[in-house]
């Protein structure tokens, strides 16, 4: 998954009702692959633009893309990576806590059309993992 697609996914996971009144700007830098993003929450909508950095951002997060993949896969939170020194920040760390407070974890087996709901996974998965998929309806 590209960094841009992951940031779009975070925007989809956000409950806009919880984000009402929040406004912030985050610069994200992944030096190992040279990516830069500006991520902005405004009007209860999270947007991102690749290739830009905002002047006067509330927070700048610098993390290698290889390390960021652990966050993208749900194996390690970004806050945990900040705490262990894997990610570096400049600015207000509370911005990440605000963003996290707006996120909703979806049930991965939700029913798209009547009769298509997947059975509950037997194993305990984190919100980003999906258990084995039965392609043959057995």
Architecture overview:
The protein is α+β, with helices and mostly antiparallel strands and 138 residues long. The chain has a single domain, classed as Nonspecific Lipid-transfer Protein, Chain A (2-Layer Sandwich). The protein contains four helices and five strands, in the order αββββααβα. It has helices spanning 3-13, 65-72, 78-83, 94-102, and strands spanning 24-30, 35-42, 45-50, 59-62, 88-91. A five-stranded mixed sheet has the order 3-2-1-4-5, covered by helices on one side. A hairpin with a 4-residue loop joins strand 1 (24-30) and strand 2. The longest helix is centred in the first third of the chain and has 11 residues, at 3-13. The chain starts with a helix and ends in a 36-residue tail after the last helix. The mean pLDDT is 87.
In short:
With 138 residues, the protein is α+β, with helices and mostly antiparallel strands. It contains four helices and five strands, in the order H-E-E-E-E-H-H-E-H. The chain has one domain: SCP2 sterol-binding domain (Nonspecific Lipid-transfer Protein, Chain A).
Which percent band covers the strand fraction?
15-25%
Q: Structural class given helices, strands, pairing? A: alpha+beta
The SSE order reads HEEEEHHEH
DSSP, total strands? 5
**CATH class wording:** Alpha Beta
| Strands side by side in the biggest sheet | 3-2-1-4-5
Q: What does the main sheet amount to?
A: 5 strands, mixed
């Amino acid at each position: 998954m590209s960094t841009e697609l992951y940031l779009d996914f975070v925007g989809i996971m956000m409950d806009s009702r919880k984000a009402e009144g929040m406004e912030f700007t985050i610069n994200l830098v992944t030096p190992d692959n040279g990516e830069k993003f500006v991520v902005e929450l405004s009007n209860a909508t999270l947007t991102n633009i690749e290739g830009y950095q905002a002047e006067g951002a509330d927070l700048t997060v610098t993390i290698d893309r290889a390390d960021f993949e652990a966050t993208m896969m749900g194996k390690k939170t970004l806050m945990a990576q900040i705490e262990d020194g894997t990610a570096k920040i400049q600015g207000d760390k509370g911005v990440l806590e605000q963003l996290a407070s707006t996120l909703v974890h979806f049930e991965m087996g939700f029913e798209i059309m009547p009769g298509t709901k997947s059975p509950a996974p037997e194993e305990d998965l984190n919100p980003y993992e999906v258990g084995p998929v039965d392609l043959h309806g057995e």
